[in-house]
Specification:
Layout (H helix, E strand, L loop, with lengths): L1 H101 L8 H10 L3 H10 L4 H13 L4 H18 L3 H15 L4 H4 L8 H22 L8 H13 L8 H10 L4 H10 L4 H11 L3 H11 L7 H22 L4 H24 L9 H37 L2 H4 L12 H8 L3 H8 L9 H4 L13 E2 L2 H6 L15 E2 L45
Antiparallel strand pairs: 1-2
Helix pairs in contact: 1-2, 2-3, 2-4, 3-6, 4-6, 5-6, 5-8, 6-9, 9-11, 11-13, 12-13, 13-14, 14-15, 15-16
Length: about 550
């Protein structure tokens, strides 16, 4: 009986083990089925989406094809009309050009009409000369040139002719600066600013015109390389901007390496036009590297403009860059002042550096409308303070220079009674001086022989620019004629401060060249007698005690 019970229990246990195994298999099968079901459902959804996308693209393609065909049909039907309009336009421009050749340009023509006249004649050299002659009216020129060039029979040819003339002048080093500026205006007029950045398609040019522009660009680049390698020329920022504008306008970017443009942009990043053109050059992700390099080189202001023009202000926050630039400028100004031992020259240089930096920051903040994020009140106060301090230093320096010149004049004149002599250099009227010079023409050489080492002198324009009066005095102050005579023979070291200041004038009949009273005429006397100029002591009195 016990044996049967044991056998039954084993069978039951085995049965339950089998059930557990079957349960595990069933659970695994269920999970696998679920996974497969999800996979097939995802495949179904993916196929459905791709099918819908494909159908949408097919419909879009059909729609675009239909629109393109309609556009082509419209263009084909409009060809005769456009051809007639083009012929009429050419005839009109031809007639206008011939009329311009038949009449001469009068001086009464205003600026727009004269520009149009040269453009109609397709006269690039005459146009350049006229633009240079009107350089003071640059604002009007920029406005009127766009319309004037449109009057030309072939505007791109006119501009390219002018550029070739500029490159020839640059090779010969004749009139480069003026022609560079004038050609820059012409290029800007042919490619108005903002087209590249706004996405607007520029003008279309014939293949021959583009090829000619490419040849000019190659020649131009060769000159640039020669300039950078010490060829004797210089490539300014304005010329670099003009070159990039022409390359973008004629779509020649692929003909030059990206590294060439990157170097050009970095060298002339200070030009605001270059920041705008950088976006049209399409540096892509490398634009961030360009801005990074500007920041590392201490050109945070330029980096702000580049970041704003290329849409990278999140990566390069303008406010952060401006604060960094302000800190660096203050640090540099302090370094200059310390290295110069706080001298006047170091103070001037430090002040100029800080003032220019503040002005650049204010301009940048105003251009990008960052006043709400970057306060300018303290900077404006600091700029006002620096400008006032600079003006005061300049005024003080000018006053010191005048005082120094006055002292030199007095020391040179010597004279009794505190500088009353010396040939009357500091006294007398303009009508009196020529008579004395004629009468005593031999007095000054003897004076020079007696005084071999006169004080250092400034230029004649500084010493004798006025009627021989001190800048701080409208009339020379000194003793009266009577007291002058009574003090004759007073020791020469007597200070003029002891003499009462009083207005007086001397006549040629009473006074000699040395400042002594004359009794009649010198009678051919060529020396000054006992007066010892070598022992005369101009420094015996101090300038501050001199009556003013």
């Amino acid at each position: 009986m016990g044996t049967e019970l044991v056998v039954t229990t084993d069978r039951v246990q085995k049965f339950f083990d089998d059930l557990e195994a079957q349960k595990a298999i069933l659970s695994t099968s269920t999970k696998l089925f679920t996974t497969l079901s999800k996979h097939f459902n995802s495949l179904q959804d993916s196929l459905s989406q791709k099918s819908q996308s494909l159908e949408s693209k097919i419909q879009s393609l059909e729609s675009r094809s239909r629109e393109t065909l309609e556009s082509l049909d419209l263009r084909e039907t409009s060809i005769p009309e456009r051809e007639s309009a083009a012929v009429a336009r050419i005839e009109e421009q031809k007639a206008a050009a011939l009329a311009e050749f038949e009449k001469s340009i009068s001086g009464n023509l205003d600026l727009p009409e004269t520009l149009k006249s040269f453009s109609r004649k397709m006269d690039p050299q005459g146009l350049l000369k006229f633009i240079v002659s009107k350089r003071k009216e640059s604002i009007s020129l920029r406005t009127e040139l766009v319309q004037a060039i449109a009057e030309a029979v072939d505007p791109p040819k006119l501009v390219l002719d002018a550029l070739e003339g500029f490159l020839d002048s640059k090779a010969k080093k004749i009139g480069v600066t003026d022609k560079r500026w004038a050609c820059g205006l012409l290029v800007q007029a042919l490619f108005p600013e903002g087209r590249s950045n706004s996405g607007e398609k520029g003008p279309e040019f014939s293949r021959s015109m583009v090829e000619r522009a490419a040849r000019i660009a190659d020649t131009w680049k060769a000159q640039m390389v020669g300039d950078s390698n010490g060829g004797g020329g210089t490539l300014g920022a304005a010329e670099a901007v003009m070159f990039v504008q022409m390359v973008i306008g004629f779509r020649l970017k692929e003909k030059f390496s990206e590294e060439f443009f990157r170097k050009l942009v970095m060298e002339h990043a200070a030009r605001r036009d270059m920041a705008k053109l950088a976006g049209a050059l399409e540096f892509g992700e490398k634009m961030g590297d360009v801005i990074d390099e500007l920041v590392k080189n201490g050109k945070e202001i330029e980096a702000v403009y580049f970041a704003s023009e290329t849409g990278l202000t999140e990566r390069f926050p303008p406010v952060s860059l401006l604060k960094s630039y302000l800190r660096n400028s203050k640090k540099n100004a302090t370094t200059i002042l310390r290295n110069g031992n706080n001298s006047l020259a170091a103070t001037e240089e430090s002040s100029t550096l800080e003032l220019n930096s503040i002005k650049a920051i204010i301009k940048c903040v105003e251009d990008h409308k960052l006043e709400s994020e970057f306060s300018l009140d303290s900077l404006r106060k600091r700029a006002t303070h620096l400008e006032k301090a600079k003006a005061e230093r300049k005024k003080s320096s000018a006053a010191s220079s005048r005082s120094h010149n006055n002292n030199n004049k007095r020391a040179y004149g010597g004279g009794v009674g505190g500088g009353g002599g010396g040939g009357g250099r500091g006294v007398g009227s303009s009508s009196f001086r020529p008579a004395k010079a004629a009468k005593f023409s031999n007095a000054y050489p003897s004076f020079n022989r007696r005084n071999p080492n006169p004080p250092p002198q400034h230029s004649p324009a500084t010493r004798y620019s006025g009627p021989y009066n001190y800048p701080s005095q409208s009339v020379y102050d000194g003793p009266t004629a009577a007291s002058y005579g009574s003090t004759y023979g007073v020791p020469h070291a007597q200070s003029p401060a002891a003499l009462p200041p009083q207005h007086y004038s001397l006549s040629g009949d009473n006074m000699a060249a040395g400042g002594f009273r004359s009794s009649g005429a010198y009678g051919g006397q060529t020396s000054y007698g006992p007066y010892d100029y070598a022992n005369a002591a101009p420094p015996s009195y101090q300038p501050p005690s001199y009556p003013q």
